[in-house]
Design goal:
Layout (H helix, E strand, L loop, with lengths): L7 H9 L5 E6 L5 E7 L2 H10 L4 H9 L2 E6 L3 H15 L15 E4 L7 E4 L8 E3 L5 H14 L11 H6 L6 H4 L13 H15 L3 H17 L3 H20 L1 E2 L6 E10 L2 E10 L2 E11 L6 H15 L6 E3 L12 E3 L5 H27 L1 H16 L7 E10 L2 E11 L2 E2 L5 E4 L8 H19 L6 E5 L2 H14 L6 E6 L4 E3 L14 H33 L8 H11 L2 H6 L2 H8 L1 H11 L2
Parallel strand pairs: 8-11, 11-12, 13-17, 17-18
Antiparallel strand pairs: 1-2, 1-3, 4-5, 4-6, 7-10, 8-9, 9-10, 13-14, 14-15, 14-16, 18-19
Helix pairs in contact: 4-11, 8-9, 9-10, 12-13, 13-16, 14-15, 19-20
């Protein structure tokens, strides 16, 4: 560690630190709180910052410390609670605040007579109860719809008190006539009856469905005994609705009545936590967060803080929590279980699976916002699949086109950083080859292209692809060897029939996964080269037709011939066209030349 001079005040504080549980606080030169930590043994923990060799972000923190304070507490649990509160209150720069950047929706049960239940993204400290958060808006609205179908709750914003109800100043609204509200504003429903519903709703939202079902079943039997069959039928419908909702929730094990699960995973500079709330054998809540490291923390460093944060946020009083490893602090009144097998291990695996899907979804979102990310992943896949030493940042692909040996052309397509680079595409009009000789055509294209790159000192590609099998790749490798660059370029050929990958000197082809991004990128470059080459070949072929058929006419150039072919489509049609139509197309003088040539 670089030489750091600590003040006499810090040295004195370090000397007198007690060997008891507590919380320590670090302050910078501006007397701003920059870090809060907890410790089983304050002296041992705090002294480690100033005695051990530190590096990176921890070293940066230590160099900023100008003053430290500590608070001794009775138990480790008290230290954890105090640390959590101080972090939330002061938000120190080097502490991780285990909160999402996103604003998830909550269900709010308002603090007023005849409470209302509604979704919200703002938590107001007015005594209202908040349930959630719900990562899925759809899940929240489904739950809210079921509650409103079972319980006739009011949705109006009127202030209902004894005076307004007794005076009957509020008229019955449409919700009452639709039987979605029992009309407490007109004293048609008592506050005691309404509050009994609210008690059941709280129980239901927290995941305890069986007590609600039992209560509704008792009411149904009582209504039947009183011969109130209409009410009994209504209650039976509500029971069936609740049972259908219950059957859709994830069932884990009926013996796990009330338990929390907390899974964690580390990935580079991020740590992920997933929380599952299990009630009556069913997963009733699930939530995953990502936290960015600030001091090279590990999941173990943040585990106790995450336990407290999730249990406070989801208002859980479960007596047991399932964890991937034991926390360093004893949590009073909470049994911490690290399962190795059985149903509890399956629950922990389910939590880790949730993290896996969360990271996958995050990766997909990043692909949409960062187009370069997918390209980088494709290049890494290509490097591994082909066994390359270098990452293929620059790839070139070649294809040849001709028709019965006429107008042979070569085409080259290029990708850079995993994306097509159309500005680098090239055509090659073949000069030295006559007839349909694909191998000789490949040799000419490679010789001209890579000869020019060497003479101009241009950077060579890491990967070169040719459309074809052993014959084409042998011709291409021969040219690279003659130029002395066969070891600098990784060369492969792709045979179209089975999409086999050939390497120079390797008699057996390589078969890539048909669904892999690596093979798809190779196919994309090959298909682009084929399309690009065919387009150029057709242009040359058309120019050849114009030259041989029409430009032999004295006074008729390529432009005029092109106009004639555009309008009449073939030389045969031009021969059959009346002079007047030719004049309308290319003028009297040139029309006379064409007419005279074909009708001499």
């Amino acid at each position: 560690m670089p030489s750091i001079t600590f003040s006499d005040e810090i040295k004195e504080t370090l000397r007198i630190l007690p060997q008891k549980p507590g919380v320590y606080q670090y302050f910078d030169a501006q007397n701003e709180l920059i870090y809060v930590g907890k410790a089983k043994n304050l002296k041992r923990r705090v002294s480690s910052y100033f005695q051990k060799e530190q590096e990176g972000k921890v070293l940066a923190l230590v160099m900023k410390i100008k003053r430290l304070e500590y608070i001794v507490v009775d138990t480790e649990a008290d230290a954890l609670l105090l640390e959590n509160n101080l972090i939330k209150q002061y938000k120190p720069r080097y502490n991780i605040l285990l909160k999402d950047d996103k604003t998830y929706p909550w269900l709010c049960l308002s603090n007023e007579p005849f409470p209302r239940l509604f979704p919200t993204r703002r938590m107001i400290q007015d005594g209202s109860l908040y349930f959630g958060p719900y990562p899925s808006v759809k899940t929240l609205h489904t739950l809210l719809e079921i509650i409103h179908e079972i319980y006739p709750l009011r949705t109006c914003r009127h202030r209902l008190d004894e005076r307004s109800i007794a005076g009957k100043k509020i008229k019955l609204c449409l919700e009452y006539h639709m039987k979605r509200c029992a009309g407490p504003c007109q004293a048609l429903q008592s506050e005691a009856e309404y509050n009994e519903q609210i008690t059941q709703i709280k129980t239901f939202i927290r995941g305890h469905i069986n007590p609600v079902l039992q209560s509704l079943h008792r009411q149904m039997m009582q209504a039947a005994d009183n011969l109130d069959f209409k009410k009994a039928q209504s209650l039976k419908t509500k029971i069936e609705l609740l049972q259908r909702y219950q059957s859709r929730s994830t069932v884990v094990n009926a013996s796990l009545a009330d338990v929390d699960v907390l899974g964690t995973q580390e990935d580079g500079q991020s740590i992920y936590f997933n929380y599952l709330r299990v009630v009556d054998g069913r997963v009733v809540q699930a939530h995953t967060i990502e936290v960015k490291k600030k001091l090279e923390e590990s999941p173990a460093d943040l585990l106790e803080q995450a336990i407290m944060e999730f249990r406070q946020q989801f208002k859980s009083n479960a007596p047991e929590i399932i964890l991937p490893f034991k926390p360093s602090f004893e949590l009073e009144g909470l049994k911490c279980t690290v399962p190795l097998a059985g149903e509890k291990k399956k629950l922990l695996d389910l939590s880790l699976q949730n993290i896996k899907y969360f990271v996958l979804e995050k990766s997909k979102r990043m692909d949409l916002t960062d187009p370069d990310r997918r390209g980088k992943e494709v290049m890494v896949q290509l490097q591994k699949a082909l066994g390359m030493d270098k990452l293929p940042l620059h790839i070139e692909c070649f294809d040849n086109s001709n028709f019965e040996g006429d107008y042979p052309v070569g085409a080259m397509t290029v990708s850079r950083n995993g994306k097509l680079s159309k500005k680098d595409y090239r055509h090659f009009n073949i000069r030295t080859v006559t007839g349909a000789n694909d191998y000789a055509t490949m040799e000419e294209v490679f010789g001209r292209h890579y000869g020019r790159m060497l003479s101009e000192g241009l950077p060579l590609p890491q990967l070169v692809i040719v459309d074809g099998g052993k014959g084409q790749i042998t011709s291409a490798y021969k040219v690279l060897s003659e130029l002395g660059i066969e070891k600098e370029i990784f060369l492969i050929g792709i045979a179209e029939r089975l999409e086999e990958i050939y390497k120079p000197g390797d008699p057996l082809p390589l078969l890539l996964d048909k669904k892999s991004e690596a093979l798809r990128h190779i196919q994309l470059l090959r298909d682009e080269a084929h399309r690009f080459g065919i387009t150029h070949y057709r242009k040359r072929h058309l120019k050849g037709l114009i030259k041989t058929e029409l430009t032999d006419i004295k006074g008729i150039g390529a432009d005029t011939a092109s106009v004639l072919l555009h309008y009449f489509h073939s030389v045969k049609k031009i021969k059959e066209t009346p002079l007047e139509d030719l004049q309308a197309c290319i003028g009297k003088a040139k029309a006379a030349l064409v007419w005279k040539h074909f009708h001499a």
